[in-house]
Design brief:
Blueprint lengths: L4 H75 L2 H25 L3
């Protein structure tokens, strides 16, 4: 492409400068959009980590309750009476099942 005269060269340079500015503006918009997406991802990760910590604490308390129950079952079984042990075990299982049902149904998010 041959450019003739200084006026044409100046107008081409202005046009290229405008295009460059437009592309820089578009790039800045995309960078801002990526920054916002990254911040949203960070917020979501924090919320999920908090929820996982709460679930871990809940699981720990359930494990503590179950280990205590197992200890009681072992103590009962060492005292004899298989039928009585099975009835008590079924009762405790039912009790924990009811507790689990109500705790999972009425917990808030």
């Amino acid at each position: 492409m041959t450019l003739r005269g200084k006026g044409t060269k100046a107008s081409v340079e202005e046009m290229l400068e405008r295009q460059n500015d437009e592309m820089a503006d578009k790039l800045a918009d995309k960078v801002q959009m990526l920054k916002q997406i990254s911040l949203n991802i960070n917020t979501e990760i924090d919320a999920q980590n908090k929820q996982l910590d709460q679930m871990d604490e809940s699981a720990g308390s359930v494990m503590g309750s179950l280990s205590g129950t197992i200890k009681h079952l072992v103590d009962l079984s060492s005292q004899g009476g298989t039928r009585a042990v099975l009835v008590r075990a079924a009762g405790m299982f039912g009790f924990f099942l009811v507790i689990y049902f109500f705790s999972s149904r009425y917990t808030t998010d």
